[in-house]
Write a structure and sequence with these properties.
It is a single chain. The protein is an alpha+beta fold and about 120 residues long. It has 2 domains: about 70 residues, SH3 type barrels, CATH 2.30.30.30; about 45 residues. Helices cover about 35% and strands about 25% of the residues. The protein contains 1 helix and 7 strands, in the order βββββββα. The strands form 2 sheets. A 5-stranded antiparallel sheet has the order 6-3-2-1-7, with no helix packed on it. A two-stranded antiparallel ribbon has the order 4-5. A hairpin with a 4-residue loop joins strand 2 and strand 3.
C-alpha cells in the first residue's frame, strides 16, 4: 500500500468525492484506510454500565485504498499549459534550424553551378 498514516489524501470516488483529509489508520490486510472527517457514519450506542443513556456517535468508516490518492503538500494541482508552451518553442527552434539548413544547401548548389559554368566556358 502506498498510503501511510499521516498522509494527506484526496478522495477519488464515493459520497465524499473531491474532499481531502489525513489518514488516521491503515488496514493492510483489508486494503482499507480511515480518513479524518471522511465517510462519516452514525453508530447507535446501546445503554450499558459505562454509558447508562444510549447515544448516537458520529465516526469515520474505512474506505478502500483504490478510492484514495496521496496529495503532495507542495503541489495540490498540476497544470498542463506549461508543457504545451515548451512544445511550441521546440517547434519554432526546429523550423529555424530547417530554414538555415535549406539556405546552406541552396548556396552549395549555386556554387556548384557556378563552377560548372566556368569549366564549360
Amino acid at each position: 500500500m502506498k498510503v501511510k498514516v499521516g498522509d494527506n489524501v484526496k478522495i477519488l470516488a464515493g459520497k465524499d468525492k473531491g474532499k481531502e483529509g489525513r489518514v488516521l489508520k491503515t488496514m493492510k490486510k483489508e486494503n482499507k484506510v480511515i480518513v479524518e472527517g471522511i465517510n462519516m457514519i452514525k453508530k447507535h450506542q446501546k445503554p450499558n454500565r459505562m454509558n447508562e443513556v444510549g447515544s448516537i456517535i458520529d465516526m469515520e468508516a474505512p474506505i478502500h485504498v483504490s478510492n484514495v490518492k496521496v496529495v503532495e503538500e507542495t503541489k495540490k494541482e498540476t497544470k498542463k499549459a506549461p508543457k504545451k508552451e515548451t512544445v511550441k518553442e521546440v517547434k519554432e527552434e526546429t523550423t529555424a534550424k530547417a530554414k538555415t539548413t535549406k539556405t546552406t544547401k541552396t548556396t552549395k548548389a549555386t556554387k556548384t553551378t557556378k563552377k560548372t559554368e566556368k569549366k564549360a566556358s
